[in-house]
Structure formats: C-alpha cells, structure tokens
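ZP: hey, is the 1,3-dihydroxyacetonephosphate complex queued? I don't see it on the tracker
AM: it wasn't, my bad. submitting now with these inputs:
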Amino acid sequence: MGPGRKPVLAGNWKMFKTGAEAAAFARELRPRVSMIHDAEIVVCPPFTALSAALQALTGSNVQVGAQDVYWEAEGAFTGEVSAPMLKEAGCRWVIVGHSERRQLFGETDEAVARKAAAALGAGLSPIVCVGETLAEREAARTLDVVGRQIRTGLGGLSEEQMAGLVVAYEPVWAIGTGKVATPTQAEEVHQAIRSLVREIHGAPAAGALRILYGGSVKAGNVAELMSQPDVDGALVGGASLSAESFAAIVRWRG
Ligand code: 13P
C-alpha cells in the first residue's frame, strides 16, 4: 500500500445471490465492518440484487457496484444496462473488463475502453480489470499483455478521468483456483502498471492510482499482499460471498 492512497476492498459476487440473500449478507456485514474508516468497502452483486443490497446498506460505510455496464446511455440493446441507469439505481462503482467477460463473452480491450469512459461519464468509478492467462505467463508475456490492456483500455482517458477509476490486476490463473500470486509476483505487475500509467498520464495520476490485486484473495493472504508498496486493495471473488470472510479481509490490519 502506498502513501496517500486509500485502500479499496471490493467483493465481486459474480453470478451468486438473490435479492433476499444479498439483503441477508448486508445485514451480517454491516456491524462487522462499521468501525473501518480508512478503507473503501464495496460489494458488487448481480444486477437483480443491486436494489436489495443498496437498500440494506443505506447509511452504512459499504458501497455498491455493478459487475458490467454497456457504453450507450439507452437504445435498442437488448439485455444491456447503461451507466446512467446504474448511477440512478444508487451504484457508485462498476467492474469493467473482468477476465470472465473477456474470455466467456468476447469482451475486447476496445469495449473495455468504451465502458470505462461511459462509466466515468455517468459519475461511476470503474474497476478496470487486467491480467494474463497461464499460457501468457508461461510464455513470459505477462507485461506485454497487461501493458496492451492498460494502453488500449485507459490510454484515451484524461488525467482527470484517471482520478475516478481504479485498476484491478487479476492473473487469470489465480482466479477461483486457490493459486494466489505471490506478493512479489503481484508487486512486479502492479509496479509495471503504475510505470506505464506514469508514462501515459503523468506522475500525479500514476501516484494517485489505486491498483487492486485479485485472484484467490482470502483473510489468510490479504495482509501479505497489502504489505506490497503498489498493492492498494483487493478484488475478491469466492471469499467475498460470506459476510464473515469478507469482513475478515476488510479488517486485514487486524
Ligand atoms: P476469486 O477470489 O474467487 O479467485 O475470484 C477473483 C475474481 O475474479 C474477482 O473479480
């Protein structure tokens, strides 16, 4: 964690939890994290559970985000949800370019760029995800791949827009596998992302950018990851589905 950067601990529920389950989770989580003021806490339910989560978290220190967004504000785009719609619903955040969207739904770097810009335009903070596959890591292409994702995804944004987003580095081989990147592996890529952002957007934008790590984060490994100078938070999948384990992650300082 670097100086002056407020950590972000975000839970990506993926396609889990109904509205009733989201409300129950929120009731359990609230008291467990109400004393935390030095980190931003975010949960990202499926679209159908956003309103229940928002309602149950009203007046709490837990913010709500969506898991995807479309870049047009409205129109004939069956099945899609726009950034102004998410904003109006009460969301503060939205995940963009998750590797599951890239791999299973064909999302490109160009689509990620449009989604991030649309989210920012509506006043949402995008959590822009990047990360290499196992084959890419084994071929020593990690920094190339992540570099391309950052250049295309964020290269067109202004310095001011950069202040409104966070990046999540999620190595695909660490997602849902129990195989967490070592703190050194995470730090190496986080540092490379920050240097690239410095090159593109300048030192102030790079210094302020929060870069989260994601991939098999748990209560037992979060502190070590957070001790790295360029790891400013976590994007948590499986371990964010129980209020108890997510609260333990949010309270990583002990
Ligand atoms: P896991 O924490 O289940 O590995 O998932 C990580 C992730 O994809 C968060 O977006």
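AM: back. The radius of gyration is 17 Å.
ZP: great, adding it to the tracker
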